[in-house]
Amino acid sequence: MLLLPALMLSGCNLVLLNPAGDVARQQSDLMIASVILISLIIVPVLIAIGVIAWRYRASNERADYDADWDHSTKLELVVWAAPLLIIVMLGAMTWIGAHQLDPYRPLTRISAGHPVAANAQPLEVEVVSLDWKWLFFYPKYGIATVNELAAPINMPIHFKLTSTTMMNSFFIPSLAGQIYTMPGMQTVLHAVINKPGNYKGFSSNYSGHGFTDMRFRFLGMSQQDFSRWVAKVRAGGSDLDRKAFDQLSKPSRAVPVHYYAHVDADLYHHILNRCVDPGQVCMDKIMAIDANSIRAAHGSDADKALSGNPSMTAPAHDAATN
């Protein structure tokens, strides 16, 4: 009976423990190491509970009983020193790992023992979460896709992410940890996929009644297959301008994969800065106007204040990540 769950799970692919991307692999190693360290406290305690309950049960007359016992230096040393040491190790490990795996930090390696080449150019992908679908821009190739994402293996990927109406969470378990998308804000994620495959992607943050259909496929390909995929998008895609985006952004569920062969070059910028519709003033222009007004009113003191507040001079806010 105890082996039955293991047999039932033997055919499952526990993606979080066996991911195909190096960032997700490092996150998996960090989780496994954390569980092992915590188990060094939990497992002995659970064993001790059983041993003590059995050894000192009422019917066991051979167990020693010391009514005057109140202190043991050896026991106190074990009870306090061992957990303290484990907590220090766990804290150091997770602190270092969290900074090394910061999604805003560019990759320094493709996989263990394989650093990123000095002249390597990452694949730029701009991600927009809509109701309830995903839109992916490839600025280098001038194309876009809906609910399908592709990337060459062993190539750094630089994601820029935003949203149209509500907060979502971009998550490809095989690639990297989840990261939020928010209207008028931009988050950043660096990742790499190391094995070819067809992987699941979805939103891991509830965003309304179409949330369950907000799923897409992530295709890890060789460079040759990726070039053929780009050619397929260009051959079979339509145009994506502001008018087409207005139709696409309307709430819809279970949207099939769609390709756009020609994309308005500034469309992602307008989505991020909340100025897709004609007549709307972009957020970055509003912030620039505000910054210039402050400078005109306060002179050099304003420059010092603005230099300490990058959000007043940046084209769009960068959002904090989870």
Task: State the gist of this model.
This protein is an alpha/beta fold. The chain has helices spanning 4-9, 22-55, 73-100, 223-236, 242-248, 267-272, 283-298, 300-307, and strands at 109-111, 114-115, 123-130, 133-138, 143-146, 148-152, 157-163, 168-172, 176-181, 185-191, 197-203, 215-221, 238-240, 258-263, 317-318. An 8-stranded mixed beta sheet has the order 13-14-5-4-3-7-10-15. The chain has a 5-stranded mixed beta sheet with strand order 6-12-11-8-9.
Strand order of the largest sheet: 13-14-5-4-3-7-10-15
The termini sit apart by 40 Å
**In the CATH hierarchy, what is the superfamily of the largest domain?**
Cupredoxins -  blue copper proteins
The poorly predicted ranges are 310-317
Largest sheet: 8 strands, mixed
Number of helices: 8
Which class do the helix and strand fractions yield? Answer: alpha/beta
Helix amount, in percent?
Answer: 25-40%
What is the radius of gyration computed over CA atoms, rounded to a whole number of angstroms? 27 Å
Count of domain modules: 3
Shape: elongated
Structure summary, number of beta strands: 15
CATH architecture of the largest domain: Sandwich
The pLDDT mean sits at 88
Order of helices and strands: HHHEEEEEEEEEEEEHEHEHHHE
CATH topology term of the largest domain: Immunoglobulin-like
Strand content: 15-25%
CATH first level of the largest domain: which class? Mainly Beta
